[in-house]
Amino acid sequence: MQPISSSLLLEALNWRYATKKFDRTKKLPTATWAALEQALVLAPSSFGLQPWKFIVVQDAAVRQALSAASWGQTQPLDCSQFVVFAGRKNLDAAQIDRFLDRTIEVRGGNKAALADYRAIMVGSVEKARAGGYLDGWQSRQVYIALGQLLTAAALLRIDACPMEGLDPAEYDKILKLAGTDYTTLCACAIGYRADDDKYATLPKVRYKAAEVVTHI
Amino acid sequence: MQPISSSLLLEALNWRYATKKFDRTKKLPTATWAALEQALVLAPSSFGLQPWKFIVVQDAAVRQALSAASWGQTQPLDCSQFVVFAGRKNLDAAQIDRFLDRTIEVRGGNKAALADYRAIMVGSVEKARAGGYLDGWQSRQVYIALGQLLTAAALLRIDACPMEGLDPAEYDKILKLAGTDYTTLCACAIGYRADDDKYATLPKVRYKAAEVVTHI
Predict the structure, then answer these.
(1) Do A204 and B106 touch (CB under 8 A)?
(2) What is the predicted ipTM?
(3) Which fold, A6-89+141-212?
(4) Which of A133, A199, B47, B107 is most enclosed, with most CB atoms within 10 A?
(5) Is this model's pTM higher than 0.90 or not?
(6) Is A155–B9 a contact, with Cβ atoms under 8 angstroms apart?
């Protein structure tokens, strides 16, 4: 298969914007949403540990509660798919063993052959725990998945609104994450922009490349 | 212009992997790298504040030093472009004003009309500082850019290796970030896989969708 062109890529990335008003009458074709969901599943992460849960909320009452927990923003109500990104807290050796079990399931081999690899991962995780940056490190991985979803959606010409303007503790309660090993980090509404979303036509505000990119 | 197909998207995401061995004889066409650099510039972030610097390191001696500061991994030496992702520390009102100045430059308007918006941003930043999560919040944004770069590269059929196995303090010294408002978070090598990179043919290890995606 062929790569896409650079111009197609940049056209899509310039087309996208954080959609404020979705057209609630338009829903994604099932296959299109399935592809975006798979883009989440395929997202890379440190050591491949996938320290996340993606919660796709379609229930109207739950969406209403999430909207209220998002300063009343309406994207959770009007979008086609509403995804909450939860990150793993207190990652531990059991999660690493779960990942290695999956590795063996997919690639074959056995635990003994992966013992050195396991030791490296456990060592990194325990060092991070001792240093107080374990959850911070893992939570950053979740944003790789968010970035992958946003880029993928733009290329499929699907609108999206990444959202951090929400109360994570309230979200955790509503989604029954409270007391579990996962906690809400952010969300993303997916769907189609309303014809009258005034934000759609505003020029994108980005610093000049020379201000954010340095060449050495 | 047309959206890409879902199957093209998924083919690209399945094609990509964390490249361990680059073909050092192959370099990206200038226009292709320019597009990927622009994908970084266009990455979304919370409030659009773009709390990052992307440092593209082409100098051989600096790359040698970065390889040494990355447990001797060879991707910094063999790739076509080596990008270090630095995140903004202690984001403050001055940065918000810089962003608003750019907003006015791009969209017109004036500072007085943006006063309420400014107050919301400053309020969020100061709340985060008081809560001790300001740098953590901002650093997560940088991983949206990393995700966007990885997805974009895959669609252009360009190989990449996201790297966290590095010593950020050493990187900061080498790149003269020490003492500035920016600090190294991660890096990404970009280029072409070597024909004999054994990792290229290993099946991708991801949890089954049902283990990471929940539907409510």
Answers:
(1) yes
(2) 0.97
(3) NADH Oxidase (3.40.109)
(4) B47
(5) yes
(6) yes
